[in-house]
What does this fold into?
Amino acid sequence: MTDPTAAGPGRGLAVRGRQAQGGARHGRARRSALRVALGVLAGLGGLQGRAAAPTLSVPALRWLDRITYGVDSWTVARYQTLGPGRFLDEQLRGAVPEDPGLAAVLQALPLVRTPPEQLLQAADAEGKRIQALDTEEARQQARQAQNQEANQLVAEAARRHLLRALASPDQLREQMVWFWLNHFSVFQGKGNLRWLVADYEEQAIRPHALGRFRDLLLATMTHPAMLVFLDNAQSAAGRINENYARELLELHTMGVDGGYSQQDIQELARVLTGLGVRAAPDSPGLKPEWRPLYVHRGAFEFNPARHDFGDKTVLGQRIPGTGFAEVEQVADLLAAQPATARFVSTRLATYWLGQAPSAPLVAAMARVFQRTGGDLPRVLRVVFASREFTASLGRNFRDPMHYVMAALRLAYDGQRPLNMKPVLNWLNQMGEPLYGRVTPDGYPLAPQAWSSSGQLVKRFEIARALGSGNAGLFEAGDGQPATSTGFPRLASRMFYTTLEPTLSPATRQGLDSAGSQAEWNTYLLASPDFMLH
It folds into this structure.
């Protein structure tokens, strides 16, 4: 059989790419890339691909591209081995074989493995030391060093997240981790949250991303990051802050039209009093009768001295004033609400469809949600089995995270870039940085939020940076030279046997007109076809 990478349109570009490229060609490449990619807005709704004996059928490829952050050789091979049913089962159950190489890379990230209480204790001790310094200049230098350490911790947490999204075979879980981080959003720039976001993702979100909604909800309700972000850490009987109670109902569970009242917000805020943060290993001085009610796990505490022990009524249900058990009772109550089932199902369906779901689909998901006690994999199966999901394949405009991950997974199939700083910068520039949403509502799920002309121009720049070299992704850091040239290998056997049949005639024509491999790479990553999944 003839090697599909050896001949045909665009397949001699690796040779032509070694020819001299002067300034005129570079300018022409930039203009040509923009001309090819400016068809994105006009072509979002109707791309059609030619059938050409692919490794996978076009529908299968588009299904796989949606279930993952973008296809690579491993996921294609795994899909071929298992078939769609078993592949989805494996992804939903989190039973995907682990990647030892990725595990070793993650193990080498020291800051994110430090317990948050230790980080907070060290930060508090450093703050006291800084205050005791003799001069303002010395204090400023010390504060700058402490800020750099906190920023490094956030960068390390983001690097861990991106490495998993890029290289983990457990692709559906990685998407759900991002989804729930966005649903239960916290902003790293507030208070001491930079010391907490890594643990929040690892302990509150990740273990429950494909579990039961009630467990996920309670994990976020009792994590210091959420309690600091939504101002509950100091809420106490007699000086109650209603902010978290309001967002818990409006954004996390029942939705703004969920049927709760201002009285429910006030009563829920009373339930949440005493939930806070304590980094010190010992317990505070408490009355003897309160000591058995004190809860302290890591940096989280429930302090009965700050709790309102009066009876409450939330959503018509009486909540006796017993202490921390009230929080668990409220988590059960909120997770069981029909409004919560509808709201969470709508959010999930919007994410996976790239558009507002129909009322019948939401109703079907909500029924499974309530019948199974919020079993998230079973709710997701309803989405994936729906006609709406099938009809949306290949038509969903990628948000920044999906776009960058898909580009990297295709360009560096099987390789792991060392330096994630360029990726973080790209996400920042496109308005979707990790842990960077200032408001608690999370980033928009609708594709229209990411399809502005400014957004597209930034994607064209990223496509050019990736297409023409390694964009700094393989720099080792600390002044050490790169260990790989990292030139992207988009024109691979997998592309020609798997992806090429999905391309529209316009994109094929653009690729055939490229004058170098770098141009060809840029045209592909900036094409309307690649913007969709």
User: Anything to note?
Assistant: The longest helix spans residues 136-167. The chain has three domains: 13-97+395-531, 100-168+170-253+259-335, 338-392.
